[in-house]
Amino acid sequence: MDFEFSPEEKKFKQEVHQFFQSEPELCAGFMEEWHGGEGFGPKTWALLRKLGEKHWLTPTWPKKYGGLDLPYVYYCIIQEEMSYWIGLYACIGTAMAGPVILKCGTEEQKDFYLPRIARGEIEFCLGYSEPQAGSDLANLQLRAEDKGDYYLLNGQKTFNTRCHFAQYHWLAARTSSEGPKYRGISLFIVDLKTPGISITPLMTFSGERTNDVFYDDVKVPKSSLVGEPGMGFYYIMEALAYERVTPVGAYQRLFEQLLEYIKESGKGSDPVIRQKIAQLAIELEVCKLFTLNVVSAQSKGIIPVYEANAAKIFITETEQRLANTVVNIFGLRGQLQRDSKWNVLNGMFEFIYRQSLTELIMRGTSEILRNVIAQRGLGLKRR
User: Which of 16, 32, 141, 317 is most buried, with most CB under 10 Å away?
Assistant: First the structure.
């Protein structure tokens, strides 16, 4: 594991940093659209297309499909800078759907989807969770019946966050009921404009929008199937190992804003507050090391199953400790939202306080991920 970037990597990091620094309007526009509930609006798409022009959305992909053929560490650098400046570090298309298409898709699928993903023109949303199948993904029930010339889809998905602005659904559906449940799942790419699909808003505790998605006799062509039938669960598990890599750039920036506020307000003279801030600084450094450990594994061609889970747990729980610390330091003022003139740091930490609860659940709950670490990392047996 490398604890520092090479001179070439540091130069690239500075280049990416300067790019975001030179685009304050687009960065501010993204924050306004995303936190305003719109999701990807015009300014967000404009920013993604600028990144696409530089091939920075998919730097590890082959040049044929819009990449730069760079090592994985460069993707990590871009993710950290994106996270620091706008709070977004990856798209579903670039981080999950694209890599699976690149590895398992047909040549037609690669040619049709990958260049548009790389240019920042399209986005996917995950279609995994169902009311009875969240952590137990193998229990999903949305059915895809083989009708000869097409598949007929019926069922419901829930907590599909980007469906109200994405173009495609990265959908897990049951194509067989024979044998173990996880062997009957297949992956599909579904155009969300297909007749029979309805999308209903579902608001989270933090005020962010996710969605329920209903399929009612939806016909999708055979060409929508990704990879082999019945192998979807395996593709998903591999992709989740990459999704659970969480950059800490956004938390680092929040910490810097908090530290500056404490210095200016004079609270830094309080020894208890100094201890809390020092503890957070240490934990953020540990978060960075967790991330570098995962990147090191990926750079060697290793799928970081338990390493990524360990990183996801520690980083998201650090976010919660960061929010808790701010509320403890600032008391009742720390609980005021953005629309209050008495809020602290524009009410951002009040929002993070609520959002941190969903982060502990999204992309795998801490409890489930600890079981994965125990089994696949430590070799412990299931009871």
Answer: 16
pLDDT band at 319 (very low <50, low <70, confident <90, very high): confident
Structure tokens at 191: 């155009």
**Which residues on adjacent β-strands are paired with residue 145?**
152
Position 1 scores a pLDDT of 59
What one-character DSSP code corresponds to residue 130?
A: B
132 vs 98 pLDDT, higher one: 98
Mean pLDDT of the chain: 86
Overall pTM > 0.70: yes
Q: In angstroms, rounded to a whole number, what is the distance separating the alpha carbons of residues 109 and 189?
A: 10
Q: In angstroms, rounded to a whole number, what is the distance separating the alpha carbons of residues 256 and 267? A: 15
40, 30 in Cβ contact below 8 A?
no
Which residues fall within 8 angstroms of residue 278, CB to CB, at 6 or more apart?
A: none
Domain count, the chain: 3
Q: What is the CATH number of the domain that holds 170?
A: 2.40.110.10
Radius of gyration of the chain (CA): 21
Q: State whether 166 and 82 are in the same domain.
A: no
Instruction: Give the span between the Cα atoms of 35 and 75, in whole angstroms.
Output: 25
Number of other residues whose CB lies within 10 A of the CB of residue 139: 13
Could you give the CA distance from residue 103 to residue 95 in angstroms, rounded to a whole number? 13
